[in-house]
Amino acid sequence: MRALKRRLVAAWSELSEGLSAEGRAALLLAPVFLTFHRYWMLPSDFGRLFSGFKTHPLFDLYKYAWWYLGSGVFLCAVPYLIWRVVWKRRFRDFGARLGEPKEAQAALPAGAVMVAVAVAVSFVPDFQNKYPLLKDARTRLDLFLVYELLYGVYFFMWEFFFRGWMLRSLKRDFGAGSIWIQTIPFAVMHFGKPLPETLGAVPACLFLGWIAYRSGSFLYGWLLHWAVAFFMDVSASLQIHL
After folding, report:
1. Which of 140, 153, 164, 199 has a Cα-to-Cα distance from 84 of 20 to 30 A?
2. Residue 240, pLDDT score
């Protein structure tokens, strides 16, 4: 037993070599948080838990509200609270602040291109059939507006997790390398979407990470991410009325 304990301690020491406690915790817990989010907070989970309400006319909207608002549990609240208690980090320490707006302004042309690309690909059948995810939002303006606001909340949680919490927690150990690290789980979380979107998530994530790293804020990436998704949904919805 003692020999096993010594081996485990030696293994842990080797795995932890060169890493701060905060960086090690972020690398260990990031996949845990994403796994819980993926298994418990998706629309299908709402449908399973509240199947008795399937006949409600807004059931599909509630499913996405569950997903988008519930994303705050494992993508924001839990990571933040742990880091607040253990390392005394404030919310603004993760990039919830204006930071350096001039650094973000330099990325505006590229951001405009991303929005234009989103509108263009919305004419591709795979994208046109998929977005907006809430199908009723295509024909009801009130549902569309509510859905897009919820969508914005969701992207805030995503940007906090990847370009805020994860990027900042790894910066001390990896510097700009933290941008590359957070790209991996971000791309994996796009599995199941159209292939071009999943592949496009890689350069998009690097770009959003670069903005957050240079500006010291994830808010600019959040607004850009939301804008890309919003105009994709607008364009795809308008097409069914033409």
Report:
1. 153
2. 78
Quickly count: other Cβ atoms within 10 Å of residue 187's Cβ. Answer: 17
pTM: predicted TM-score of the whole model, two decimal places: 0.93
Closest CA to 164 of 214, 223, 218, 203: 218
Indicate the DSSP class of residue 138. G
| Predicted pLDDT at 242 | 63
d(CA 24, CA 45): 31
Amino acid (1-letter code) at residue 126: D
**pLDDT, tens only, 115-132:** 999 999 999 998 988 999
**Per this entry, what is the length of the chain?**
242
Q: ∠122-124-125 over CA atoms, to 5°? A: 110
Low-confidence ranges of the chain (pLDDT < 50): none
Dihedral sign computed on CA atoms, order 101, 105, 111, 115 = positive
Of 114, 89, 101, nearest to 216 (Cα)? 101
Asked whether the beta carbons of 23 and 169 are under 8 A apart, the reply is yes
Q: Which tokens go with 82?
A: 């742990």
